[in-house]
Amino acid sequence: MMKFEIKDQFRLNDRPLKILSGAVHYFRLDPTQWHDTLFNLKAMGFNTVETYIPWNVHEPDEGKFDFSGRYDLEKFLEIAEDLGLYVLLRPTPFICAEWEFGGLPAWLLNYDLQLRSSDPEFLKKVQNYYQALMPRLVSHQITHNGSVLMMQVENEYGSYSEDKTYLTEIVKMMRSLGVDVPLFTSDGTWIEALTAGTLIDKDIFVTGNFGSHSIENFDALEKFHQQHNKKWPLMCMEYWDGWFNRWGEKVVRRDASEMVEDVSNLLQRGSINLYMFRGGTNFGFMNGCSARKNKDLPQVTSYDYDAILNEAGEPTEKFFAMQNMLKQNFPDVQQHIPIFPKINSYPTQLSTGCAGLLDNAEKFEVVKSSYPKSFEKLHHYYGYVLYRTETKNFGHDEKLKVIDANDRVSLYADKKYLATQTAQTIGDEVTINGENPQIQLDILVENQSRVNYGYKLMAPTQKKGIKGGVMVDHQFLVGWQQYLIPFDETLKKLSYQASPKSTQPTFNRFTMKLEDIHSTYIDCSKYGKGCVVVNGINIGRFWSKGPIHTLYVPGGMLKKDNEIIVFETENVPIEELRFSDHAIIDKM
């Protein structure tokens, strides 16, 4: 049995160990890419991989668990072990990670509970999740001849609260379910965060998160250790080697030489986990959102992060700069030539048909109610819901307004487009009229993502859909049909016809035969807003606001005969599907 200890140094079987770790999120990659990504981590000279574990993908509906496909965590751990990599696991209820709702499942919003707290109801939900999760991790611990060195208790809790009872209960749960490797917390290195977010008095190892000024940050972390009479090694659990991106903003880049110099300084004193080694992709509707007082700022589909490997897994300038620095500082480090994935730019494909959303709504699952329900009450937590009702036509203009909705609403009367409203304009009056005795009203609501960090995690603002109601004149409308729009194989049953000019959201179908199958990018630069489904898999959102105008498609999601559907909400005709062998990014 292997023995890992935290003394004045990390020690593995009584030998000193410097942890050289890189973050790789299995859930942001196609499983066919796990091996090559982890091989490249080792090829750079690192010995450890770190990953978060997002609760919301493993328990998408309460009591229903998924550990298959992209979420097959145990398979990912087995590959790491086969390659000789150690593992740091972060199975915390909250992960942040620029991930939808910070990894918290949206169904929690249907309960009257305090998130990330010692609220008994919240702890009960965590316990149920951990009873499904932890048995899958126990055998992979270093203490069970696996490769997991440590596990995390909570994530940056000192930036959220100081409920020590909650942190202690999480520790008790983990220990009771067989976790016997050392536990750690990770927080910013300022004194308030470290004081609030740690359990240092209970001997839970304390690490810090930062992306620059390594000397100063390690000084602060070491001082905190000393104040509690700990002679622990120093470790940065998240060294931010890049950054994430939001719609409509400039792509964030970090100079490779500056970063590597700071990392070199860090390694003279301690251990590191690079966040990220490879960022990957926010497939589906799993992109996170930055919280602001008056509006929230959703993040893009790509989680390239300007990381050591780019979104497609290609080694960047940072990879070779890091490799050279490591060889200079640690001459005995084992390194290899990295694997370069092949990226194809396929021929342009022409549309084989178009289906209007409003014309095909009846083909989707429908929930009927007197008043509109939120996404959470509909148990349809992500993406889009189409709300439909009718109002009497009195033969003159009427005023329509939506009361309390999130995040983006598009309004239609008798299938004619009226307006699109967001946080600043939802509730503004819109004029409606019609030619028939009854006017059909359709309201398409998009959940652009729940926040992944900050005080709004506990706020009712994170509930999505129409939460108040819809008024015409001074009356709330009743008699609603809510169509739950899936982005999977269900789209096959729509009525696709020759592409007409349309003023309603459309599903645009393409078919493509392939012989030489590799990863690619779909060029969305001519589209408006929506998402793309490849062979029944939602690969993510596009938006003309940029700054990134491509959607990455892993080769593992393609096959010889392919069906690709582009959902477009902005009345932009989609007649072609173009590809690229690289990301298309705005030059700012």
From TrEMBL:
GO molecular function per UniProt: beta-galactosidase activity
UniProt-listed GO biological process terms: carbohydrate metabolic process
Species per Swiss-Prot/TrEMBL record: Companilactobacillus suantsaicola
Active-site annotation: 156, 238
Domain Beta-galactosidase 1-like first all-beta: 372-484
Origin: domain of life: Bacteria
Stored Gene3D superfamilies: Galactose-binding domain-like, Glycosidases
Homology family: Belongs to the glycosyl hydrolase 35 family.
SUPFAM superfamilies: (Trans)glycosidases, Galactose-binding domain-like
Keywords (A to Z) from UniProt: Glycosidase, Hydrolase
Protein name stated in the entry: Beta-galactosidase
InterPro entries reported for this sequence: B-gal_1-like (IPR026283), BetaGal1-like_ABD1 (IPR048912), BetaGal_gal-bd (IPR048913), Galactose-bd-like_sf (IPR008979), GH (IPR017853), Gly_Hdrlase_35_cat (IPR031330), Glycoside_Hdrlase_35 (IPR001944)
Glycoside hydrolase 35 catalytic domain segment(s): 9-327
Every Beta-galactosidase galactose-binding domain range: 505-561
